[in-house]
Amino acid sequence: MKIIKSDLHSIAVGPKQYPQDDLPEIAFAGRSNVGKSSFINSMVNRTNLARTSGKPGKTRTINFYIINDSFRFVDLPGYGYAVASKSEIEKWGEIIDRYLTQRENLREVVLVVDIRHEPTSQDLQMYQWIKSFGYTGIVIATKVDKISKGNWQKNVKIIKDKLGIKDTNLIIPYSSEKKINKEKVWQVFEEIIS
């Protein structure tokens, strides 16, 4: 896909702030430090469209990024950040849940994990939730450039087993830095959007 234009469209905590149109959306869920922002930036050839932070748990809003004026990437608040208070965590949960259950523009929810680490119980919970709502169950396994190519299969298998994924093709190893598998991801996304 040729990216001509990408912009932050809207920042929301509730439906009143969601963009009011019928453009298709692909949402990204994942733990606070798995590299969702870096992934979004690398997919649209920008360095700081989605703000990356040295502090995990910084994204506490739903961020809508409009791409080529024809569809949106939606960055959901990262979960699993231990330092946040219980009430804050519950609030993030409500923000995410409301979007995922009520948004008609939503075409797919993609789980983003770090290929170097076994998925957590929260990742499993999120994945089961994604599947229960009838989404495909695509997993982007980031930071693949940080492990040797010889370990890719082994780490993909760990993710597959932990999340109970039947089709290994649903797990795409990805590197934001080296753009590994960028074309492959775009092929998947283009099918979803069209």
UniProtKB/TrEMBL annotation:
Q: Which InterPro entries match?
A: G_ENGB_dom, GTP-bd, GTP-bd_ribosome_bio_YsxC, P-loop_NTPase
Which keywords does this Swiss-Prot/TrEMBL entry list? Cell cycle, Cell division, GTP-binding, Magnesium, Metal-binding, Nucleotide-binding, Septation
Q: Name one GO biological process term.
A: division septum assembly
Q: Does the keyword Magnesium apply?
A: yes
Q: Which GO terms describe its cellular component?
A: cytosol
Domain named EngB-type G is located at 22-194
**A Pfam family annotated for this UniProt entry:** MMR_HSR1
UniProt keyword Cell division, yes or no = yes
User: So which domain of life are we looking at?
Assistant: Bacteria
One GO molecular-function annotation for this sequence? metal ion binding
Q: Which cofactor does it need?
A: Mg(2+)
Biological role stated in the UniProt entry: Necessary for normal cell division and for the maintenance of normal septation.
The similarity comment for this entry is: Belongs to the TRAFAC class TrmE-Era-EngA-EngB-Septin-like GTPase superfamily. EngB GTPase family.
PANTHER family attached to this UniProt entry: ENGB-TYPE G DOMAIN-CONTAINING PROTEIN, MSS1/TRME-RELATED GTP-BINDING PROTEIN
NCBIfam families per the record? GTPase_YsxC
Q: Which HAMAP family match?
A: GTPase_EngB
Kindly provide the name given to this protein in its UniProt entry: Probable GTP-binding protein EngB
The organism encoding this protein is Tissierella pigra
